[in-house]
Amino acid sequence: MRFGVVPSSVRRDVLNWHGESGRAWLDDLPRTVWSLKRTWSLRMDGPPYDGGSHSYVVPVRREDDSPAVLKVIYLDDENRGEPTALHRYQGDGAVELYDYDPATGAMLMEKAVPGNRLKSTRFFGHKTPAAAWRRIGIATGLYRRLWRPYEPAAGFPDLPAATEMLDAWRAEYRDPDADVRRRLGDDRLREALARCDDLADAPETGIANRDTHLTNIVSAEREPWLVIDPKPYLAERAFDGGYFLFTQELYGPHSGRDLLRAVADGLGADAERVKAWALLRFAAHLAHDADERELDEVSKAMRELEDA
């Protein structure tokens, strides 16, 4: 099978987010994939996977006919450290990294079979609320396992630090533009600045994950569930919880104090620090990402967590 068509979501997001450099990456992609196939002795084993935002992911067969996945990413600050994390995980709770090309950031990794996403998995005998608690338990258990000390490895990218995010938020919220001030309001701006200061001194730092949600966990045979597509940062355990709590508070069926406790306990993290990271994530979403039509809904979800 020859090079497959780039999924429309990937093409759209790469062009929208990265402009001409994104177009150059897309133009070079067939040549990049062909070169990696030759280097790693691969053959295509199906069309590229749909979805995603800035990576071309396709099933392949290795020289010994074993299945694998080839992932070619548009390198940016958020995903640059993915191979570093997978190398450090060594397949413990996440898909295994077989090979890595530093020049392109491409990865050859384990194919999780059957690969069903945790978010859409139904559990027999569990109605929606109970199934949601079970998904939360599975996810937090995995991210708790994946948090570990960071040890630099030769040939792999260094990881960004969560303190850099705090510095960026602090600088923005001290002198917000008119739109950010309108979206957040003076009280939430002051509270966000205080949280940035409170979280600056972490009790411990290790490999944490920025993109913690139920879609990046899939079913497998080697383990019941494996994490894919990690976005590693040097951060405390509560950092993982903050990002996961944000997505569950905004999009899930549970909220408030019970959800906060379940996430913090599942990760083995301090609940107040988990809450603080989640509220900073809410603030960033309100300030920049939320559609105008969603502002009231997002603000209401944030208020439920503020009151937890």
TrEMBL record:
SUPFAM superfamilies found in the cross-reference section: Protein kinase-like (PK-like) (SSF56112)
Molecular functions (GO terms): kinase activity; phosphotransferase activity, alcohol group as acceptor
GO biological process terms on file: secondary metabolic process
Pfam families (alphabetical): APH_6_hur
Domain of life per record: Bacteria
UniProt keyword Transmembrane helix, yes or no: no
Keywords: Kinase, Transferase
UniProt entry tagged with the keyword Ligase: no
Protein name, entry field: Streptomycin 6-kinase
Naturally occurring in which organism (per UniProt): Glycomyces artemisiae
